[in-house]
Amino acid sequence: MARETIQTNSREKTLRIAGLAADKKAVDVVALDMRNISTFCDYFVICSGSSTRTVKGVSDFIEEALRKQGISAHHIEGKEESRWILMDYGDVLVHIFHQELRPFYNLEWLWSDARRIDGDSSKK
To answer: Which of 3, 8, 63, 123 would suit a FRET pair with 34, their CA atoms being 20 to 30 Å apart?
Structure first.
């Protein structure tokens, strides 16, 4: 029962992060359910920004909004260059790419077995 609560909270956090990214003008926001294919996290959020300024702005916006809810990242990488920022929230990993860099890494293809989620999908 405790794992189900954690998964629900992880899912809600994932959808919150995806919404925050979209609110801050991130594009191609994708949330992936990694629970059945990964041991290092439950969800990915992947999104892009059109400039390094946008990428950093999305990261700062997510970090501040979650901090206000008492949620802090375990680790954040890539803020200096702001071409690919990785935010580690333990159960949720957030990847914010400069739109020119995202196709090179193509995480959606790499993790194509993961189910995409959105705010309207069932809580399976």
So the answer is: 63
DSSP conformation letters of 54-120 = HHHHHHHHHHHHHHHTT---SEEE-TTT-SEEEEE-SSEEEEEEETTTHHHH-HHHHTTTSEEE-TT
> Model confidence at 30, in pLDDT bands (50, 70, 90)?
very high
Q: For residue 124, is it within any domain?
A: no
User: How far is the C-alpha of 8 from the C-alpha of 109, rounded, in Å?
Assistant: 25
Which amino acid makes up residue 102? R
Q: Which residue has the tokens 């790499």?
A: 110
Q: Is residue 122 part of a domain?
A: no
- Is 32:116 a contact under the CB 8 Å cutoff? yes
Question: Position 20: which residue type?
Answer: L
Tokens for 112? 């194509």
Q: What is the CATH number for 78?
A: 3.30.460.10
